[in-house]
Amino acid sequence: KNVTFLQGKSSEIIKSLSLKRIHFAFLDAHHVTREVINEYEFVKNRQIKGDIIFFDDVTPSLYPGVVNAINIIKKSNIYSIEYFYLSAQRQYAIARKII
Fold first, then answer.
1. Is the overall model pTM greater than 0.85, yes or no?
2. DSSP E strands: which ranges in 4-99?
């Protein structure tokens, strides 16, 4: 009852959400930098220190836009980023808010 799965174009869905707090988010946006950053910004503004964002498809050879977005996020020093490489086709990142 505490998990909500949303499907659709993230830029449209985000506009309809009235969430005050997001403890954990699994982001699987359209795999271009701008869309990943848009989802990230929405979630970031509703998280506090210790909250988590899980990024899907952080695979350079397949989704360079996602990787680029993670690199931008990492430079902000708001989240610590841990990478998980399961295979050449399946890579993920977990971001924990540190400030």
1. yes
2. 24-27, 52-55, 79-87, 90-97
